[in-house]
Amino acid sequence: MKPGDRLFDNIDRAIHESKVGVAVFSPRYCESYFCLHELALLMETKKRVIPIFCDVKPSQLHVKDNGLCPGKDLQRFTYALEEAKYTVGLTFDTIEGDWSQFLTTAMDAVVHNLIEVDAEETHKHRGYFMKNY
C-alpha cells in the first residue's frame, strides 16, 4: 500500500483473495476495530483461520462495547471472535517462549493449511468438472 490508498479497500481485497488467514491475538486485540473487522471478514468469507494466542488465553478475549461501534459490527465481531476461540490454534508466551522455534511451528502450520486448502479446491473443481462433463 502507498500513501493515499484506502485502508479498508486494500485489506478487504487482500482477504477476499487469500486462502488462509492468520489472526494473532494479544491481550489488547479486541480493542482494535481494524483487527476485529479483519477477523470478521475472514470468518464471513469462510477462510481457514489459524489463531495464534500470544500472551492471552482464548477465554480472555471479549468484544467490548465502548459505545462507538455500531450494533451490527458488534454482532459480527462477537461471532467471529467466538469462531476463532473454538478453532485449534497455536499459543505463545513471549517471556518463556522460543521465538525461533515458534516461528518455525507457525510457518509449518500455515504451509500445511495452504496445501490442504489447495487440495480441497482441486477436489471440488474436479468433482464439478466430472459432474458437468
What does the overall shape look like?
globular
Q: What distance lies between the first and last C-alpha atoms, to the nearest angstrom?
A: 43 Å
Largest sheet descriptor: 3 strands, parallel
The share of residues in extended strands comes to 5-15%
- Would you tell me which CATH topology applies? Rossmann fold
CATH architectural designation: 3-Layer(aba) Sandwich
Decide which structural class fits the backbone.
alpha/beta
Strand order of the largest sheet: 1-2-3
Query: How many strands appear in the DSSP assignment?
Result: 3
Order of helices and strands: HEHEHEH
Instruction: Output the CATH homologous superfamily.
Output: Toll/interleukin-1 receptor homology (TIR) domain
Ranges where pLDDT stays below 50 over 5 or more residues in a row are none
Radius of gyration: 17 Å
Question: What's the tally of helices?
Answer: 4
Helix content: 40-55%
Number of domains: 1
Overall pLDDT metric: 90
CATH class: Alpha Beta
Describe the structure.
53% of the residues lie in helices and 12% in strands. It has 133 residues and is an alpha/beta fold. A three-stranded parallel β-sheet has the order 1-2-3, sandwiched between helices. α2 (33-44) packs across α3. It has one domain (7-131): Rossmann fold, CATH 3.40.50. The longest helix is centred in the C-terminal third of the chain and has 33 residues, at 99-131. The chain has helices at residues 7-17, 33-44, 71-85, 99-131; strands at residues 20-25, 48-54, 90-92.
